[in-house]
Amino acid sequence: MVDIIKAMGWNYVSTVASEGSYGEKGVDAFMQLSREAGGICIAQSLKIPHDHKPSDFDKIIRLLLDTRYARAVVLFASDEDIRGILNASKRADQVGNFLWIGSDSWGAKNSPIHQLEDAAVGAVTILPKRATISGFDAYFTSRTLENNRRNVWFAEYWEENFNCKLMSSYKKDESSRKCTGQERISIDSKYEQEGKVQFVIDAVYAMAHALHNMQRDFCPENSGICPEMDLAGGKKLLKYIRSVSFNGSAGTSVTFNRNGDAPGRYDLFQYQWSNVSGPGYRVIGQWTESLQLNIEDMQWPRGEQDIPSSVCSLPCKTGQRKKVVKGMPCCWHCEPCDGYQYQYDEFTCKLCSYSMSPNANRTACQPIPIIKLEWHSPWAVIPVFLAMIGISATIFVMATFIRYNNTPIVRASGRELSYVLLTGIFLCYIITFLMIAKPDVGVCSFRRIFLGLGMCISYAALLTKTNRIYRIFEQGKKTVTAPRLISPTSQLAITSSLISVQLLGVFIWFVVDPPNTIVDYDEQKTFNPFLARGVLKCDITDLQIICSLGYSILLMVTCTVYAIKTRGVPENFNEAKPIGFTMYTTCIVWLAFIPIFFGTAQSAEKLYIQTTTLTISMNLSASVALGMLYMPKVYVIIFHPELNVQKRKRSFKAVVTAATMSSRLSHKANDRPNGEAKTELCENVDPNS
């Protein structure tokens, strides 16, 4: 019965037993074997009382319905109790709900299901294999009251079989027919050989063989029972009984195991309904130490095509683990493996490793896809477009200055520092392509070098210019002697020294922390693991980026301070005002950059936002410098060459004197009505004279 349940895939069954030795011991044996086999849980174990009433059967059905998933019910019950259970199921309108598994007390009998056939459809029953003993039929049908007086129960059988009363019967009933003694078995009554005749004969022979073997061992010299056998006791005799081995009445071997059980040989039946032959038992298999079941021959109630289920819990879906109910190994709750967990086995979810995420059905882990900023991304297209325009404009300005290298405007701009500044502006645009390129060791090395170098070169040149202007006019207020280090060579030396500080910092950075690429899984490790991405990036932290730009920002701030100090110098003499406007605008750009850069540190779009913000800020800084400092000059050089001519040179003393007077007059103009003060002192004087 345990093997049948496991073959059906059932793991949650109830048991019903008639109160008494057969039913209770049968259920106990079933439960013991089910525990040993594993995988079968008992939902309920119910008993039918001896003095039962119809309400007792109704209560049993109600209790069975409490565990509605346990449709399979194992029955160890008498014929009468089986009828009571089937009747109660009909009264409760539960015909076809339960899957009955009957013991050998049900077997292939019709009496338990008479007029209850519809409630018994689908019931699986077992019956020990039996053979009809032909000689017994001839012997038993020839028995009469005269030739079978030695059987003290035969007279009672005679009355029952022929429905009559013997004169010697203690139960006098005037209404009953009197037995004549001439009745004949199988002629005057129905006769069918009892199926257990084979086992009774074999049991008698087993006892005979045991006694024979015992007598042979204890008193081989004597015949019959000897005193030694009387003194041996029942345990010795039991040992001999369990040791016998012979061919039984049906031709099969009769042996016993150490528990005293004979080899199990069972036929398996199912009560089925056929439109052709009507209802009846059909052999669906056999059990001889192992189960042989023809599932395709089975028929289920309610017209079900597949094997009905009788399980406490349905199998968990893929990617879910079983959380077993305490004390009920067949019952569980299904819990999904969530987050970055995958289903390790049916009871366990495990976390994927750092660089992995669960696959779609959560049965294993797979590498997290790796992304980078692509060239076709909108986050890259805009900075690249601005950089290309800026590079083209820078090359055009530089080509124009080289073409008109000896003209007054180019010379007045300070050719050497102009070329240095244009180089820095060019590098500011170039860094855009390095920031978007696929990271590798080479790209990461160039990023470290050029990230702050372009800005450093630009602001070092501008700082040198503004510092020179400031020193010239401050010195002019005190003396007519020119300040030191204002020659082009000196200016280049100062600029180079400022740039070398940046290069020294980058060199130290290379030594302490060599450039490398990393895959950052934290940046886009979303709550949904299927959206997680690893970001391929250079091994440069946000703090290192700010430190790399920090020196350039320091130069920018210092340059802004000098631009403020020289704001009163007339624009006819120098580039102080354009430089001032350039630095004010640049400061605004970088003040906007810092909160955007750090404010998006926790964003899922951090890679894109920070890269785009950084590159656009550098493009804007370069564009501001290029537009305010060089575009007016290029405009004059190309479209108004008549203005690009040599003017009368003045001495340093004349330049400073004119600038000082012009500054004073411009201040006094505020005190005059309608702003009438004007000056024409030293206009268009070459600042390098």
From TrEMBL:
This is Metabotropic glutamate receptor 7-like isoform X1. Residues 668-681 have a biased composition (Basic and acidic residues). Its main location: membrane. GO terms for molecular function: G protein-coupled receptor activity. It is a multi-pass membrane protein. The keyword DNA damage does not apply. Residues 665-689 are annotated as: Disordered. One of its GO terms (cellular component) is plasma membrane. Residues 379-653 form the G-protein coupled receptors family 3 profile domain. It is found in: Cell membrane. The gene is LOC115008819. PROSITE patterns: G_PROTEIN_RECEP_F3_2, G_PROTEIN_RECEP_F3_3, G_PROTEIN_RECEP_F3_4. Belongs to the G-protein coupled receptor 3 family.
